[in-house]
Design brief:
With 315 residues, the chain is α/β, with parallel strands linked by helices. It folds into two domains: 3-228, Rossmann fold (3-Layer(aba) Sandwich); 233-296, Alpha-Beta Plaits, CATH 3.30.70. The chain is built from eleven helices and 15 strands. It has helices at residues 46-53, 75-78, 97-107, 116-126, 142-153, 172-187, 199-205, 223-228, 241-250, 275-284, 299-307; strands at 6-17, 20-26, 29-31, 35-39, 61-66, 69-71, 82-85, 160-164, 191-196, 208-213, 216-222, 233-237, 256-258, 263-267, 291-295. A six-stranded mixed beta sheet has the order 7-8-9-4-10-11, with helices on both faces. Strand 10 (208-213) and strand 11 (216-222) form a beta hairpin. Helix 3 packs across helix 4 (116-126) and helix 5 (142-153) packs parallel to helix 6.
């Protein structure tokens, strides 16, 4: 991919706190136009990476390209085209949603006061808060507050949005609101880089993902590419489970018994071993097969394997 096709690119990006490598030599490649999920358990280095991308913290070493510029060198040219929501929006609770945005807009000295109202109303419209524009922000639900934070990031036209765990702490309804907002932003051509510790969420929202674990980038690519990195499993339902297990072991697999001892599963861990070969071996051994199922590796299996942690998939 050419540099011009990327919204974010890092090379060997590293951030050290004391003795800890919070971000350890990561090479991120975020294509323009993607909804890119930055996935990893708590403490894996997502927020630190995002702070460095935005120039809020300096890198210990490595390079960052954001849109067409090098960070932090070209920050003044690049950052106006980047909207960000990091660690929750700073909202004035006793001001209305609209008044909050007017303040944020006024705080940016590059903006023209004459067109402020229009910018603010458009941003409210974009995140679906027009109806609540006059309501004080303390009466907003968490989902509405988060959308107000995103509206703030949208006061100027943006080529790239960087959102750090935008659904954190939201109820299912708020989560849905933010998720569908992110999709609609992407439909308008904005690149969205969104971090999350929830696999299910990233799977629903994103076209590409990168997976962080303990400061390292352990996988990166499209959802399909990541799925295909795992191994498939076979699941055999049979009254002859003990015999089935023996046959699978004979093929070099490591079968497990489930259910009331009538289900045997095994990961197809032997290189080149096809499901049909397994089935034929069972038939040859006269194992009575009631059910034979092949399942691709789930993303969840894949992530547990990559990060050594269970992901909260309840989403
Ligand atoms: N300012 C800081 N000083 C020292 N350690 C930090 C600081 N910020 C983050 N860390 C550490 O860096 C690691 C990564 O944190 P963070 O980037 O917040 O992870 P995530 O956003 O994935 O939960 C954690 O171990 C955290 O304690
Ligand atoms: Mg974080």
């Amino acid at each position: 991919m050419n540099a011009g096709e990327l919204a974010i690119e890092t090379r060997g990006l590293t951030k050290v706190f004391g003795r800890q490598r919070a971000v350890d030599s990561i090479d991120l490649t975020v294509p323009r136009g993607s909804v890119f999920g930055f996935l990893g358990p708590n403490g894996s280095g997502k927020t630190t990476t995002i702070r460095v991308l935005l120039g809020l913290a300096s890198a210990t070493s490595g390079e960052v390209r954001l849109l067409d510029g090098e960070m932090p060198h070209d920050a003044r040219a690049v950052l106006p085209r980047v909207g960000a929501l990091v660690e929750g929006p700073a909202i004035y609770p006793f001001l209305s949603g609209r008044a909050n945005l007017q303040r944020f807009d006024a705080a940016d000295r590059r903006t023209d006061p004459a067109t402020r109202s229009r910018r603010v109303d458009e941003a409210l419209e974009r995140v679906g808060l027009s109806h609540a524009a006059k309501k004080r922000a303390h009466a907003y639900s968490l989902g509405m507050k988060q959308r107000l934070g995103i509206a703030n990031a949208l006061l100027a036209p943006r080529d790239l949005l960087i959102l750090d765990e935008p659904t954190n702490g939201l109820d299912p309804q708020g989560t849905r609101e933010v998720r569908s907002l992110i999709r609609s932003l992407s439909d308008d051509g904005t690149t969205v880089f969104v971090s999350s510790h929830l696999l299910a969420e990233v799977e629903q929202m994103c076209t590409r993902i990168a997976v962080m674990s303990a400061g390292r980038l352990v996988a990166q690519g499209t959802l399909d590419e990541l799925r295909s990195g795992g191994t498939a499993r076979v699941r055999v339902t049979t009254p002859d489970a003990a015999e089935a297990r023996r046959v699978l072991t004979g093929l070099g697999l490591t079968p497990e018994l489930h259910g009331h001892d009538d289900v045997v599963t095994a990961e197809l861990s032997v290189a080149g071993l096809q499901p049909e070969t397994v089935n034929a071996a069972l038939v040859r051994a006269e194992v009575r097969v009631r059910g034979f199922e092949v399942r691709g590796a789930s993303l969840e299996d894949r992530f547990v394997a990559l990060t050594g942690e269970g992901f909260d998939v309840a989403g």
